Each structure stands twice: as C-alpha cells, then as structure tokens.
Amino acid sequence: MAVGSYDPTVTAYWGDAEHTFRLKAKQIFELQEKTGSGIYAVYRRVMSGDWKLEDVQHIIRLGLVGGGLKGIDAAKLVDRYFEPPYADHWQIAAQIIDATMTPPEDLEKKAEGAGAETQATSSAPQASTEQPASSD
After folding, report:
1. CA-to-CA dists, residue 82 to 8, 58, 61, 92, 116, angstroms
2. How many CA atoms lie within 13 A of 129 on its CB side?
3. What value does the mean pLDDT take over residues 14-43?
4. Confidence grade of residue 102 (pLDDT, cut at 50, 70, 90)
5. Could you report the per-residue pLDDT of 39-72, keeping only the tens digit for each?
6. What is the Cα gyration radius of the chain?
7. How many whole angstroms separate alpha carbon 33 and alpha carbon 54?
C-alpha cells in the first residue's frame, strides 16, 4: 500500500455531537505511555473485548485530539460524557483503533496489484450514528 493513501479518520456521534477521531503518531505515543502497553497490545485488548476502561477512555480522548480538538476540550468532553454504559464507549474506541491499525482490504489489494476491488470489512463493532432521543 502506498504511504499516505489511507486516511484512518473516524466520524461518529459520541457524547453531545458528531465528532472526528483519529490517532496520529503523537496520540499513539501518548496512548502507549498512558496505558503502559504498546499500540498492538492495546489494539488486541480492545478488539478481543478484553479491554481496560483506561484503554477506551484514552483512545477516545486522544482520538478527539488527533481529529482536531484542543486537548483541554477533548478532556472536558471525556470528563462530561465518559459514564456507563461503557460498552457504548468501547464501540467507538474499537472503531478508532481498528481504523488506525487495519487499512481497508481494497487498498491493500490495489497496492499488491490484484486490481480487484472488494468491500472493506472491519472487525470493529459498529456504533450508532443516530443521536439519542431527547429527554425534553
């Protein structure tokens, strides 16, 4: 696959609105520092369902920063919205880290010269893009 041909950005509804998430190198280094694990160890935990709460929380916060939010604003959102049910947050975190670690199959096949395009599949759980019903 050609360098720079893949954009691992995830756009999803989380907390209060639709947000852009992306883990760039700076965020990956911080994720490794905060979790005490390499990126692939965090990826395996999250994708296998054997995640730690801190894995999910840091992926979301750092994904928001990599997606363009200021660090302080990302931290405020996480402080405000990171509450049970935590599995909902895990769905978003899994999408973010899966997009970072697993390029779509169709781009890999093009890079290898296969020429056949296939629908990209992901093992990440799919989060809803619908806004929750208002309690007003």
Report:
1. 23, 11, 10, 12, 41
2. 7
3. 97
4. confident
5. 999 999 999 999 999 999 999 999 999 999 999 9
6. 15
7. 12
Contacts (Cβ under 8 Å, ≥6 apart) of 119: 106
Asked if residue 22 is part of any domain, the answer here is yes
Residue 101 maps to a domain: yes
Query: Cα–Cα distances in Å, from 75 out to 30, 64, 78, 97?
Result: 14, 9, 5, 18
Domain that holds residue 21: 11-111
Number of domains in the chain: 1
Residue 30 has pLDDT above 80, yes or no: yes
Backbone φ, ψ for residue 12 (5° rounding): -155, 155
- pLDDT of 4 over the 60 cut: no
**Within-domain flag for 56:** yes
Contact 118, 80 (CB under 8 A): no
Q: Is 123 within the bounds of a domain?
A: no
Q: What is the largest CA-CA distance in the chain?
A: 55
Distance CA 14, CA 20 (A): 10
